[in-house]
């Protein structure tokens, strides 16, 4: 859920298609020939222009900015204690050369590399890690990172390069959290500036492969190569400085203009590629870089406090009436996966539960008949004078949501279930979540750790779904208290099984992040959180 | 004259106060908890105590009436408050965005006047009935074309197709051209519509017949005699035109990826940055007030029959020879 205005975007896509059709001149495709450069040697030097949708708003890594687009930029400025390998989802050493957790996941010890310096020349020490974390706690909810520190007791400096983070309650998700941008380590010079005054980025001193050149609100953020950078995570297979001289993140709000800027050669990489533009770009040989977002998948989340959907039979009937593949094929495209579990397949600990969600409208009808829901004259089922009519709460910020839900509306109508779609912007969505005036919520949440299950379903968290299930609750708390990652994956699998078998959620599709590049650009990759990884290995071609 | 301006300034303050009150009521009646919005939609592990601390810091825990008075007092000191997500002063954010907006708005207004007035004059001047009818039909079309679509068409043709102008950014004069044309289209069309209508009417006035009878050629009739009178109704809607330009910047600046007031507005609304939205509303109200005041002061320069600051009766008496 980024704060992008995706609703207007969908409209724009249509308008743009019309424009292209009406304009006599062809949308010239500058990219001819094969998708070159994939195995060529990286070219050293050059300036890369990257079009993003939103102004970063705050370049303070732990601050609250514009979500993904902000982290695309700040990821380049700061490194993290651990690196989550996007190929394996395993946590690997980064600023910390080793780490360990105690058995109940309350104490985490990190041993830092001793050769790392901040961009102002000061060496990285255990004290910087402690200061960064304590600063986040002091900032409270103004920091995006504060929710990673639930139950935080404190950070202790053991020696110059060893630091121990302790919690009062287990927090097995913490090692994974340390790999995220908001927990990136900043230098003492940053922390000396009041939290509210760091948005412009002038004060941000990190250990990352780029440093801030200039930031112009609503226009661009220019980053320059950090000299002497030599601590990329080992699995990136890069041992030195970034290849590029500079990276300019240019703010281009309209997706169609981003696409046009790429195809007309005005920018090198674009972010936030819309599903409607995917075919155009691939047809013109512009390579896509895409990765399914980890976290909880897009789908039907039930408010089990509501009378009709509190019945598991109704929920199961809806699962068998939902044709997720058709929704994916119609509203989205092949870049997106059909959901198989509450967790998306790129989430650590994901388990395939698709057996629960077979599309079988006959079974659905049978279940509803059995539960006493009889077809009325208008094609909608009824029971004791109550219509089988449900309200769906959803956010208009992602273009394909509307198409997806209108199709779902038809699919459920076929078995006699009526859906009323209540869409709105983020604030009104949150308002309805709080008041509980909905039966089904159409939502998702991107997060690179299975603990997202707890924040979504635990009765101790916000619990917008009003779930009261001790079995599930025990599993959600247990995964947070299991320090061993393999053992934790088993608990997470059990939790997914529980959610699927109780039909608390029906997965439909996995949100996917899509970038597109000029055919000559190499080394632009997405991290384990499916956001832009560091551009250390990115390079342009030698000549146009 | 001094009394007149004093009265108008008092009126202006009244208008601003009303804008403040209405925007306060509307913005604070919106659904959603500002504290939760500051924390963001994905913040699921935030404790109520943390939210309370946030409310206290932004003064959101006080009763509405106290917040209303606090902000109003701040406003009197020229303090528009702080933007919620960045913590920066609202006046700074508006001030920084303004120059870039003024560039395209000024060029847009210039283009609108040149082409709007040009079209109106050409339409009334032309003796070719078919051409005249064609020209008269253009302004409604200009008003009806959606700015958003038109902007995309321009970018598609003159940036992606023929690379004459940059598609994004605010570097150099070239970057102002397409956004200015986008702004000029509805504004120019409005001017053309009004001016051609009022020129047509003016040319039917008896005094024009007199001028013609005295042997003035069509050009002299048009420019020396008709245009000055016909321009008054167009001047009256200047306030509307400025409003059109300001609201047009939201689309123009978004499509052409320019910084400016329109972009600040779009972002502020999307993020429900209440102090910033309110600051923009007040700024826009101020612009309207000033524009209308200027227009009223310009009237007498164009039409000597209008005298400012003296009631009608007094004027009549003044006209009576002693």
Automatic annotation (TrEMBL), chain A:
Top-rank taxon, per record: Bacteria
Signal peptide: 1-26
Gene Ontology annotations for the cellular component aspect, listed alphabetically: ATP-binding cassette (ABC) transporter complex; periplasmic space
Segments forming a coiled coil: none
Record domain Solute-binding protein family: where: 90-451
Keyword terms: Signal, Transport
Keyword Signal in annotation: yes
InterPro entries: Peptide/Ni-bd, SBP_5, SBP_5_dom
Keyword Transport in record: yes
Gene Ontology MF terms in the entry: peptide transmembrane transporter activity
Any one Pfam family match given in the protein's UniProt record, by short name: SBP_bac_5
Family label: Belongs to the bacterial solute-binding protein 5 family.
Protein name, as recorded: Peptide ABC transporter substrate-binding protein
Annotated organism of origin: Cryobacterium arcticum
Organism lineage: Bacteria, Bacillati, Actinomycetota, Actinomycetes, Micrococcales
From TrEMBL, chain B:
One Pfam entry name: BPD_transp_1
The ABC transmembrane type-1 domain, residue ranges: 98-299
Keyword rRNA-binding attached: no
Domain of life the protein comes from: Bacteria
Keyword field contains Transport: yes
GO biological process: one example: transmembrane transport
Localisation: Cell membrane
Cross-referenced CDD domains: TM_PBP2
GO cellular component: plasma membrane
Transmembrane segments: 12-30, 102-122, 134-159, 171-195, 230-256, 276-302
Membrane topology: Multi-pass membrane protein
Alphabetized UniProt keyword annotations: Cell membrane, Membrane, Transmembrane, Transmembrane helix, Transport
InterPro entries in the cross-refs: BPD_transp_1_N, MetI-like, MetI-like_sf
PANTHER family in UniProt: DIPEPTIDE TRANSPORT SYSTEM PERMEASE PROTEIN DPPB-RELATED
Family per similarity comment: Belongs to the binding-protein-dependent transport system permease family.
Name of the protein in its database record: Peptide ABC transporter permease
Species of provenance: Cryobacterium arcticum
């Amino acid at each position: 859920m980024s704060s992008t205005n995706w609703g207007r975007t969908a409209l724009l896509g249509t308008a743009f298609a019309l424009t292209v059709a009406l304009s006599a001149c062809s949308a010239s495709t500058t990219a001819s020939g094969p998708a070159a450069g994939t195995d060529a040697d990286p070219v050293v030097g050059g300036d890369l222009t990257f079009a993003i949708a939103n102004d970063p708003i705050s370049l303070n890594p732990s601050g609250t900015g514009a979500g993904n687009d902000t982290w695309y930029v700040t990821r380049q400025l700061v490194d993290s204690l651990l690196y989550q390998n996007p190929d394996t989802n395993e946590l690997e050493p980064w600023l910390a050369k080793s780490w360990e957790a105690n058995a109940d996941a309350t104490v985490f010890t990190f041993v830092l590399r001793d050769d790392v310096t901040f961009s102002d020349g000061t060496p990285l020490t255990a004290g910087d890690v402690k200061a960064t974390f304590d600063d986040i706690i002091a900032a409270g909810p103004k920091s995006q990172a504060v929710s990673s520190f639930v139950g935080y007791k404190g950070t202790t400096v053991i020696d110059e390069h060893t630091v121990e983070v302790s919690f009062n309650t287990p927090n097995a998700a913490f090692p994974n959290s340390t790999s995220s941008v908001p927990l990136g380590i900043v230098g003492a010079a940053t922390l000396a500036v009041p939290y509210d005054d760091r948005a412009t980025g002038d004060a941000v001193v990190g250990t990352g492969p780029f440093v801030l050149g200039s930031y112009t609100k609503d226009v661009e953020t220019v980053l320059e190569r950090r000299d002497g950078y030599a601590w990329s995570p080992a699995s990136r297979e890069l041992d030195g400085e970034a290849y590029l001289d500079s990276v300019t993140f240019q703010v281009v709000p309209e997706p169609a203009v981003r696409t046009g800027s790429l195809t007309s050669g005005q920018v090198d990489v674009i972010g936030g590629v819309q599903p409607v533009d995917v075919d155009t770009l691939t047809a013109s040989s512009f390579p896509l870089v895409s990765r399914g977002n980890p976290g909880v998948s897009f789908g039907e989340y039930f408010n089990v406090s509501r009378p009709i959907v509190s019945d598991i039979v109704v929920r199961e009937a809806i699962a068998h009436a939902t044709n997720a593949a058709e929704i994916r094929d119609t509203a989205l495209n092949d870049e997106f996966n059909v959901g198989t579990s509450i967790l998306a397949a790129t989430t650590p600990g994901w388990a395939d539960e698709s057996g629960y969600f077979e599309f079988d409208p006959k079974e659905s009808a049978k279940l509803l008949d059995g539960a006493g829901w009889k077809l009325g004259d208008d094609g909608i089922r009824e029971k004791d004078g109550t219509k089988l009519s449900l309200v769906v709460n959803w956010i208009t910020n992602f273009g394909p949501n509307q198409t997806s839900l209108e199709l779902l509306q038809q699919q459920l109508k076929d078995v006699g279930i009526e859906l009323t779609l209540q869409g709105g912007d983020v604030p009104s969505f949150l308002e309805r979540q709080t008041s509980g005036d909905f039966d089904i919520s159409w939502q998702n949440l991107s997060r690179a750790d299975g603990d997202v299950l707890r924040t979504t379903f635990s009765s101790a968290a916000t619990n917008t779904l009003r779930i009261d299930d001790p079995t599930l609750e025990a599993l959600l708390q247990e995964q947070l208290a299991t320090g061993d990652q393999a053992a934790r994956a088993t608990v997470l699998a059990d939790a997914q099984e529980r959610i699927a078998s109780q039909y608390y959620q029906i997965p439909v599709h996995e949100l996917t992040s899509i970038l597109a590049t000029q055919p000559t650009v190499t080394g632009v990759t997405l991290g384990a959180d499916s956001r832009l990884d560091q551009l250390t290995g990115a390079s342009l071609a030698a000549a146009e | 004259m001094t009394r007149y301006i004093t009265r108008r300034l008092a009126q202006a303050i009244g208008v601003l106060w009303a804008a403040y009150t209405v925007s306060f009521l509307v913005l604070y009646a919106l659904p959603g908890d500002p504290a939760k919005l500051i924390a963001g939609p994905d913040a699921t592990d935030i404790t109520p105590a943390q939210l309370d601390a946030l409310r206290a810091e932004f003064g959101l825990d006080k009763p509405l009436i106290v917040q209303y008075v606090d902000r109003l007092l701040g406003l009197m000191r020229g303090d528009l408050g702080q933007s919620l997500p960045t913590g920066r002063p609202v006046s700074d954010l508006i001030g920084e965005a303004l120059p870039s907006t003024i560039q395209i708005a000024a060029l847009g207004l210039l283009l609108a006047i040149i082409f709007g007035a040009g079209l109106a004059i050409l339409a009334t001047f032309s003796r070719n009935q078919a051409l005249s009818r064609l020209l008269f039909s253009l302004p409604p079309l200009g008003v009806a074309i959606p700015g958003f679509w038109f902007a995309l068409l321009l970018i598609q043709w003159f940036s992606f197709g023929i690379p004459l102008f940059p598609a994004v950014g605010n570097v150099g004069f070239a970057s102002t051209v397409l956004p200015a044309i986008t702004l000029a289209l509805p504004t120019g069309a409005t001017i053309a519509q009004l001016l051609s209508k009022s020129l047509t009417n003016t040319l039917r006035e008896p005094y024009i017949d007199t001028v013609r009878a005295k042997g003035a050629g069509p050009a002299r009739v048009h420019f020396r005699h008709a245009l000055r009178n016909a321009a008054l109704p167009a001047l009256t809607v200047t306030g509307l035109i400025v409003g059109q330009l300001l609201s047009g910047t939201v689309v123009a600046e978004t499509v052409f990826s320019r910084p400016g007031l329109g972009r600040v507005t779009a972002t502020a609304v999307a993020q429900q940055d209440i102090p910033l939205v309110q600051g923009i509303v007040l700024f826009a109200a101020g612009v309207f007030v000033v524009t209308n005041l200027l227009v009223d002061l310009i009237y007498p320069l164009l039409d000597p029959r209008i005298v400012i600051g003296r009631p009608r009766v007094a004027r009549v008496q003044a006209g009576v020879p002693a």
